[in-house]
Amino acid sequence: MSLDTLGDRRHIIDEIAENGHVTMVIGRVDTGKSTFCRQLASAAIGKGRKVGVVDSDIGQSWIGPPTTVGMKMLSGLQYPMLFPDSFYFVGNVSPEGHLLQTAIGAKLMVEEAQSLGAELVIIDTTGLVDGNIGRALKLSKIDLIKPDHIVCFQRDSELEALIKWIESGLCKVCRLKPSRFVEKKSQNQRFKYRLEQFRDYFSDAVPQELSFLQVFGQREIFLNGRMANDKEIDNISEIIGSGVLYAEWFFKGLLIVLIDSLDPMKARQLCSQLRIDELIVKKPEDFEDLLVALIDKDNKPISLGIIENIDFMNKKIVVKCKKDSVLDALKIQISRFRIPDVRDL
Question: How far apart are CA 2 and CA 124, in angstroms?
Fold first, then answer.
């Protein structure tokens, strides 16, 4: 069922602000999705409803820093919104290669908003709608979240292949054309926006220490297994003929950190002698400047951080993050994303 095929923006906003519960806004880049979300939120707040906004546009986010799906309960369109009420760390500025995290993050943040009493949850999304990847991402979000309204911004009929299977009595699809006043942004403008968001987010961050024994890792092998003891490290070093800074065992595998590269023949020899199926070799610089998320004992996010240095001998991680963020950290989610010009932050 289509509420409006002629693009009656005011009618759609009034209808959803009055009766909507979960609304997802989709469309290509530069179609005005975020502006519409703000207008809809303002209208619903004006009707006395509690509104939560979930920003899942991880590359051009306006709620929470880039690389995260942010959620904020709104009582007005206050700025800045870099610090959401909650967030889910995806760990990249593009959903490609991170479809699962992006979809799960959106679902969890919708649930978080509802748990805080949101009567209307508005979900802003990325501009990735084309091709198999774009369709898979949007359909996964729709299947997980089950919105009662979907607002589609399309210039021609580019979203029809995506939405034609969605329309039903349970989900109302609203079609709108992008405003002619929408500002088209270049890739360079998008890059500069992300960098400025990161600069603002980390403006008061300070280096802090985390012990290897304090946290365990998520999404990476590092800090996920059993740390090798001194005798085991000496044995590994002897087999490969090179000093090992750190080693960690995981199921049928081994992670080692070396200063130099490992010869492939030595790697095969190590796997054979230790009877392991997988060998992961890292250098200390592989960890530097990586973006991380610190998580507490309740699995709630505390803060984003940047790895400045890892002291493998003393088993310490130096993370640049909000002051005292490390005090309650129990988990560390390590991404493979480095912030450009991180030293200037």
Answer: 20
